[in-house]
């Protein structure tokens, strides 16, 4: 990337941020009558203006910039419209603590999301079709980096857009974690004190907001990362030239961008102190930021649902000749399993959040006990998605482990069919375990027992995976380049997450463990092992495919060896203090518990993880232009994408291939997985 | 074959050593309730299971990494075997049996912790942002109910906590008792506890309940029956004494309803405005105007906290209490005395 647009972009960011800050401060002054320098309105305008101007400086007024400008405009127009209607109806107060009243903010945010979708240009083709105008089947992308900032229909471009957006959100969510981890380094409130004020929040309120946002930003970044790898890899793994519905694919990505903006807006609009779980009645009393969070999740959910639909259609309909179910690359099986969950369960989190939104906006008493509602009902609806969601995160990760392991062990994947079926098994059992998050909630005492059975049952298919991986390693010729290190790290850490799971499933033991740092440690183990490590492995593995260059091996290994021990210290420490009485989600802890030293160590470990990820980021962006050239079969893989030059042709394979053997027959002389058709010259 | 023997021995060795290590680390706090006994027993079994599972996977994995690593200059692929159906059946069905057995044990274990004594003392617990309110059985002679923000219990006698919340969901947790139960607004949940070890503990809220969730911690005292009765009698006398004057009644209401979690009585800045020297003073509001903190203002602020917000406290919503007129008058009378 040329340096000039980037420099210009940062200049624009600063200038527009200052303008937005001044404007917000002025508007706030007009309504509230005092200058609130760290207040929400000034911050919201700063955020929106600087964000938009950054892309304007980078890229000009098109693609993402136009989307963001339209989002800002749409938000303001929608909010003023509702404000006007409320004023006409005589509703009071016309303006709220965050400049606009809550209904105006909600409607404005919704109209902002819709405006973004139109502004970015994703609807263009559909609008033309509706008006009877034909469009070309394929769109030519711009060469170079610019194609990543506007609508592209190429699944590989969309995959990279997803992945980079996920990395961006990981960076923000991780920064939030560092901020509250710093506060936790010692008992007592140090800087997030009760007299501290930022974004109309006191220190403990901001702590709660950051903790909540860390959760949801990481979850969304994981969902985007999952979509990124699946979008990037699945079509070329099955031999398709693109996804089944390329425009819907692009739509699914772009709708996640305004959703991310809403998430960040929630931080400055008073935040929300409920955690990402958003349990009412707490969430029906939180500031406007709560609504931004609900809307953000609701919007991001569309991305998940449509993306999943696309993956299933692609795998069902667009496989290469000879690619039968049992010859699919194992990662595709994982993609199918995860898509089944995302397609059918995501609606429930959207619904549960929508019900709370309506409770707040229209006074409907779904979860309000004083109006005959039931707060525990929300938890059932919420967890019906949010437990399967963790399988949406880990199944693709486990698929990456199974996919990469044979390449570096130089041996067939042990028990291919069993691994494939175990993914489906986990996905299906995952639908009937949700209430294990609610053992202390006040649900029927003995109804907890069937959920204990179903939860423990997940151990069986998960065990099959572990045993098969170990059997795959056995007797191989194991190589240890960076992607393989991350695969092994993933197995080890997911094992720790796995074995610390069953105690939570035992109802009586869980009564002690629930809502403690034990659960926090267990959860981070499963997600790092099940998603984060495989995600890094996949990036190191397919980076040469995407760019034609390799990421630095040395810095990749530094990343691994710095992150792994720090992470182990972090989660072991969390579990240990959790058992001894450390509650989750607290801004401060009792000094008498004696956790100060442990927390200090945890904070240091947290910073080391951040440092290792920073190294990864530098390696990533540096290698795009300066990495060692690698255009061939870098990892000596049998998979078809490595048999064509990197980066790949926009429609993947100039010549279609036929599957003639098993995917992972490493060590069988003369065997082949795919054969490219002999006839040349035919396109697509 | 040699490999399998070595790995087998290592698995046993690692699981045993791991268990010895974890056992010595004293992972759980001291157990202070009868309900903790079955839970700790089950936890210990879980630790054993964790050690074995860890060793079964991690040992062959690291063994392979050492033994089956590509040596320098070595070329070619690994052994070619694609799977083994009997092995797969074995390692799916054996865990399945273990899971069913464990879940059965878990169900029995759960019923052990729920076992109820019909003669248990009932204590009503209310969670309030951000305090606890414990109501002890009414004194049979005077009918006065002792209400405290501390939980005092006699050792060896089962109590049934009938719990509810006045605002959002809270969760009752004393780590030494092990058991945990949410408090849900609009309904009662129950928790059975039989204290077994005298001492001072703390009850904290385990379910995120807003700004000062971290702060929702109150003392729990387990003492002998005699000491408990002495304490209860003292509280009864205090309650009767204070109940004689309006400001005394106000003081009681304030301590029972967790007002001090936000409003200090010594001038310190809290989540809400301090009450020290409040009465009769000029108070600046968020809209820039000033009011005098008289009876009318304080009454309105309790009844409808959002009506007038004191400058500097706009970020926090106060809990909506349902006090009667007499109770509010008593609280105002108490605030008057804070100078």
Question: Could you characterize what this model shows?
Answer:
The complex is a heterodimer of chains A (684) and B (339). Chain A is an all-alpha fold and 684 residues long. Among the domains of chain A are: 477-645, Cytochrome C Oxidase, Chain A, CATH 1.20.210.10; 654-684, no CATH class. Helices cover 65% and strands 1% of the residues of chain A. Chain A is built from 21 helices and 4 strands. Chain A has helices spanning 3-32, 40-59, 63-89, 102-120, 124-130, 155-184, 203-238, 246-254, 256-268, 289-317, 330-362, 375-409, 416-429, 448-457, 459-473, 482-499, 502-505, 507-513, 517-547, 553-580, 596-626, and strands at residues 95-96, 99-100, 657-659, 674-676. In chain A, strands 1-2 form a two-stranded antiparallel ribbon. In chain A, helix 2 (40-59) packs antiparallel against helix 9, helix 7 runs antiparallel to helix 9 and helix 12 runs antiparallel to helix 13. Chain A is globular and about 80 Å long. Chain A starts with a helix and ends in an 8-residue tail after the last strand. The model of chain A has no long low-confidence stretch (mean pLDDT 92). Chain B has 7 helices and 12 strands. Helix content of chain B is 40%, strand content 17%. Chain B folds into 3 domains: 1-61 and 99-115, no CATH class; 121-241, Immunoglobulin-like (Sandwich); 246-336, Cytochrome c-like domain (Cytochrome Bc1 Complex, Chain D, domain 2, Orthogonal Bundle). The chains are: A mainly alpha (684), B alpha+beta (339).
Gist of the model:
The complex is a heterodimer of chains A (684) and B (339). Chain A has 684 residues and is an all-alpha fold. Chain A contains 21 helices and four strands.
């Amino acid at each position: 990337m040329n340096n000039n647009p980037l420099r210009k972009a940062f200049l624009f960011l600063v200038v527009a941020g200052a303008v937005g800050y001044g404007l917000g401060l002025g508007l706030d002054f007009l309504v509230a009558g005092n200058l609130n320098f760290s207040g929400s309105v000034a911050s919201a305008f700063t955020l929106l203006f600087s964000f938009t101007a950054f892309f304007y400086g980078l890229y000009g007024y098109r693609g993402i910039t136009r989307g963001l400008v339209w989002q800002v405009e749409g938000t303001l127009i929608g909010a003023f419209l509702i404000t006007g209607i409320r004023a006409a109806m005589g509703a009071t107060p016309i303006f709220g603590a965050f400049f606009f009243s809550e209904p105006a903010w909600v409607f404005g945010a919704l109209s902002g999301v819709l405006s973004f979708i139109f502004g970015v240009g994703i609807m263009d083709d559909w609008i033309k079709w509706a008006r009877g105008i034909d469009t070309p089947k394929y769109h030519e992308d711009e060469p170079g980096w610019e194609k990543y900032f506007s609508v592209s229909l190429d699944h590989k471009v969309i995959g990279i857009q997803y992945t980079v957006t996920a990395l961006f959100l990981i960076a923000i969510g991780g920064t939030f974690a560092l901020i509250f981890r710093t506060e936790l380094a010692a008992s007592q409130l140090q800087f997030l004190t009760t007299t501290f004020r930022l974004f109309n929040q006191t220190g403990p309120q901001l702590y709660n907001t950051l903790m909540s946002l860390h959760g949801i930003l990481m979850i969304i970044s994981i969902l985007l990362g999952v979509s990124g790898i699946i979008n990037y890899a699945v079509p070329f793994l099955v031999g398709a030239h693109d996804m089944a519905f390329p425009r819907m694919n692009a739509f699914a990505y772009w709708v996640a961008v305004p959703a991310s903006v809403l998430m960040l807006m929630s931080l400055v609009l008073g935040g929300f102190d409920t955690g990402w779980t958003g349990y009412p009645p707490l969430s029906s009393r939180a500031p406007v930021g709560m609504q931004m969070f609900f809307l953000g999740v609701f919007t991001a959910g569309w991305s998940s649902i449509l993306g999943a639909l696309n993956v299933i259609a692609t795998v069902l309909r667009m496989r290469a000749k000879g690619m039968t179910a049992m010859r699919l690359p194992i990662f595709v099986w994982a993609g199918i399993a995860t898509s089944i969950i995302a397609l059918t369960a995501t609606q429930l989190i959207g619904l549960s959040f929508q019900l709370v939104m309506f409770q707040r906006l229209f006074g409907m008493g779904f979860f309000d006990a004083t109006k005959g509602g039931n707060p525990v009902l929300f938890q059932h609806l919420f967890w019906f998605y949010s437990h399967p969601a963790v399988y949406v995160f880990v199944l693709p990760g486990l698929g990456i482990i199974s996919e990469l392991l044979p390449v570096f062990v130089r041996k067939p994947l042990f028990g291919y069919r069993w691994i494939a079926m175990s993914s489906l098994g986990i996905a299906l059992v995952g639908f009937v375990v949700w209430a294990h998050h609610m053992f202390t909630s006040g649900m029927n005492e003995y109804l907890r027992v069937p959920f204990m059975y179903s939860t423990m049952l997940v151990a069986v298919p998960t065990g099959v995976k572990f045993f098969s991986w170990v059997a795959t390693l056995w007797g191989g010729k194991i190589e240890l380049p960076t992607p393989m290190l991350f695969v092994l790290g993933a197995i080890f850490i997911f094992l720790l997450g796995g074995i610390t799971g069953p105690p939570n499933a035992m109802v009586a033991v869980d009564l002690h463990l629930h809502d403690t740092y034990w659960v926090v440690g267990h959860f981070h183990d499963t997600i790092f092992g099940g998603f984060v490590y495989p995600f890094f492995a996949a990036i190191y593995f397919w980076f040469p495919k995407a760019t034609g260059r390799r990421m630095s091996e040395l810095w990749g290994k530094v990343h691994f060896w710095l992150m792994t021990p720090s992470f182990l210290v972090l989660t072991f420490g969390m579990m240990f203090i959790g058992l001894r009485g450390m509650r989750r989600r607290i801004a401060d802890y009792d000094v008498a518990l004696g956790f100060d030293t442990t927390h200090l160590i945890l904070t240091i470990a947290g910073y080391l993880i951040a440092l290792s990820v920073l190294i990864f980021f530098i390696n990533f962006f540096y290698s795009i232009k300066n990495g060692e050239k690698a255009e061939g079969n870098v990892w000596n893989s049998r998979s078809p994408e490595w048999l064509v030059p990197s980066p790949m042709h926009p429609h993947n394979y100039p010549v279609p291939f036929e599957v003639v053997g098993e995917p992972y027959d490493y060590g069988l002389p003369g065997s082949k997985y795919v054969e490219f058709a002999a006839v040349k010259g035919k396109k697509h | 074959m040699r490999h399998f023997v070595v790995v087998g021995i290592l698995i046993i060795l690692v699981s045993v050593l791991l268990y010895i290590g974890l056992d010595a680390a004293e992972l759980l706090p001291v157990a202070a309730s009868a309900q903790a006994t079955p839970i700790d027993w089950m936890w210990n079994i879980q630790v054993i299971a964790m050690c074995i599972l860890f060793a079964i996977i991690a040992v062959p994995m690291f063994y392979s990494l050492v033994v089956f690593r590509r040596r320098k200059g070595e070329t070619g692929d690994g052994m070619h075997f694609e799977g083994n159906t009997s092995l797969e059946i074995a390692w799916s069905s054996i865990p399945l049996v273990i899971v069913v057995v464990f879940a059965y044990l878990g169900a029995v274990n759960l019923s052990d912790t729920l076992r109820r004594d019909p003669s248990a003392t009932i204590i009503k617990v209310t969670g309030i942002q951000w305090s606890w309110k414990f109501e002890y059985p009414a004194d049979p002679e005077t009918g006065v109910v002792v209400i405290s923000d501390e939980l005092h219990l006699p050792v060896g006698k089962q109590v049934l906590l009938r719990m509810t919340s006045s605002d959002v969901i809270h969760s009752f947790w004393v780590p030494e008792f092990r058991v945990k139960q949410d408090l849900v607004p609009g309904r009662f949940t129950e928790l059975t506890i039989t204290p077994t070890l005298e001492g001072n503990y703390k009850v904290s809220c385990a379910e995120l309940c807003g700004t000062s969730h971290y702060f929702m911690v109150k003392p729990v005292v387990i003492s002998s029956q005699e000491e408990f009765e002495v304490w209860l009698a003292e509280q009864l006398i205090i309650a009767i004494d204070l109940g004689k004057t309006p400001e005394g009644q106000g003081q009681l209401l304030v301590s029972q309803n967790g007002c001090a979690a936000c409003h200090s009585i010594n001038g310190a800045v809290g989540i809400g405005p301090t009450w020290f020297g409040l009465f009769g003073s000029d108070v600046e509001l968020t809209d820039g105007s000033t009011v005098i903190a008289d009876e009318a203002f304080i009454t309105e602020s309790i009844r409808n906290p959002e009506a007038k917000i004191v400058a500097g406290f706009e970020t926090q919503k106060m809990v909506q209490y349902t006090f009667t007129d007499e109770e509010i008058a008593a609280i105002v009378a108490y605030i008057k005395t804070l100078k």
